[in-house]
Specification:
With about 450 residues, the protein is of the alpha+beta class. It contains 15 helices and 22 strands. About 35% of the residues lie in helices and about 25% in strands. Helix 4 runs antiparallel to helix 5 and helix 7 crosses helix 8.
Length: about 450
């Protein structure tokens, strides 16, 4: 059992975890870089420790400094949030060696499922459908081209240790392959210190569907339904919905069973996400597992009434899940808009700077997760996401109307944001008719 949690992250997710801990009676320790000393999570935690300069490699990715902060503060557990060290097996190992409870899966789980090529092999062996592709990784463009020809174009090149769209390229012809492969390989080496790649058949115009998993250490594993994460720009999610309105109960049950099976195959413990591609014929294929909490977890929370951060903490404390699959009920529809400090009219260029005025929308069914405030200076150092607007409705139509209304209420001045871009999505005829896929933004909105 632990009573003090260090949050090894920043911004809105750090604040989200602090709030859950406070409601559970747990003390919290925030860590921050020098440029983040005025970030809201620093002020909301019970304690705060500076762990280095603005460069994330010297602060939020600095395992030694974070572990030292935990030991100095007397924290017995660490929650990594998402990004940074959340899927780093070395960090999980060091936490264990230092007697610190990581609120997340084991080193073995992270290593097995965090490496996409190994996860793919594991799923094939378990009989879970995967996108046709290479069985093993490759670091050679010539070998990759040969394999791509066997699979058949178009193909998608992916970094084995990738995430967030980095180290990923779609290739439609043989003549494009070598340059795309080498570019993705270089990008992967810089971002993940791993230049091994794998190649899959590119499923054109699919939906990106992910199932939320919870698993305790007693072998109880269940899913909390799906999220439709098809609205993406350059493989980065922009807007998410739950549930997916084109999935009927039999398909949901089938996909959910496969998601649970995938987690059971690796003896998974914690919160995780099984991600699928769903084609136009309702064929689905496993693509990866995220061994962490997701940015878009709130849409699942509002349609199920289950606090995923609290469940993560309870699992880490050794508690058994208090509900079964039959207890999970989906109510209504939820939409999440990622609010970014960026200028969509200038190729989505980041827009750091001082927030002059900030007004949070409210009303029935509206939730905002954000760490900004009037007078807060957004640093140029980190991801441009500054908050998430989540709206719930009794059906998709009401959720859309409520999201549109909340976006109209939201005021952020002093910087550029993508609020108007989200309005364009919500006003699009095909979006309203639920005719979306992973290329929707590129084809319909840009």
């Amino acid at each position: 059992m632990f009573k003090k949690v260090l949050i090894a992250n920043r911004g809105e997710i750090a604040l989200r975890i602090i709030r859950a801990c406070k409601e559970m009676g747990l003390n919290t320790v925030a860590v921050y870089s020098e440029i983040d000393r005025d970030c809201l999570h620093v002020h909301m935690a019970d304690e705060a420790i500076c762990i280095g300069p603005a460069d994330s490699s010297k602060s939020y990715l600095n395992i030694k400094n974070i572990i030292s902060a935990a030991i100095i503060s007397g924290a017995e557990a660490i929650h990594p949030g998402y990004g940074f060290l959340s899927e780093n097996p070395k960090f999980a190992r060091v936490c264990k060696l230092q007697g610190l409870k990581l609120i997340g899966p084991s080193e073995e789980n992270i290593r097995k499922m965090g490496n996409k090529s190994e996860a793919r092999r594991t799923m094939v062996e378990a009989g879970i459908p995967v996108v046709p592709g290479t069985k093993d990784v490759t670091i050679n463009a010539d070998e990759g081209l040969k394999l791509a020809k066997e699979i058949g174009f178009p193909v998608i090149i992916k970094a084995s240790s990738g995430g967030g769209g980095r180290g990923m390229r779609i290739v439609y012809s043989e003549k494009e392959f070598t340059d795309a492969f080498n570019t993705a390989k270089s990008e992967s080496a810089v971002a993940f210190n791993d230049d091994s790649m794998y190649i899959e058949k590119y499923i054109e115009e699919p939906r990106h569907i992910e199932f939320q998993i919870l698993a305790d250490e007693y072998g109880n594993i269940l899913h909390l339904g799906e999220r439709d994460c098809s609205l993406q720009r350059r493989n980065q999610k922009v807007l998410e919905e739950a549930p997916c309105s084109i999935i009927d109960s039999p398909l949901r049950e089938k996909m959910g069973e496969m998601a649970v099976k995938a987690a059971k195959t690796v003896n998974y413990v914690g919160a995780g996400t099984i991600e699928f591609l769903l084609d136009r014929y309702n064929n689905f294929y496993f693509i990866e597992m995220n061994t962490r909490i997701q940015v878009e977890h709130p849409v699942t929370e509002v349609i199920t009434g289950i606090d995923l951060i609290k469940e993560q903490i309870k699992i880490a404390k050794g508690e058994e899940l208090k509900f079964t699959q039959d207890d999970i009920k989906i109510s209504g529809h939820a939409i999440e808009c990622r609010i970014n400090a960026e200028d969509p009219n200038k190729s989505f260029r980041p827009s750091p700077g001082t927030v002059e005025h900030y007004f949070v929308p409210g009303g029935n069914g509206v939730r905002v997760d954000s760490h900004i405030y009037s007078g807060y200076r957004i640093p140029p150092t980190y991801d441009s996401m500054i908050g998430k607007l989540i709206a719930w409705g009794k059906n998709r139509e009401e959720a859309i109307a409520r999201t549109r209304r909340a976006l109209d209420e939201m005021i952020i001045t002093g910087i550029n944001t993508n609020i108007d871009f989200h309005r364009k999505i919500l006003d699009n005829k095909k979006f309203l008719e639920n005719q979306i896929n992973t290329s929707f933004i590129e084809k319909e909105i840009m």
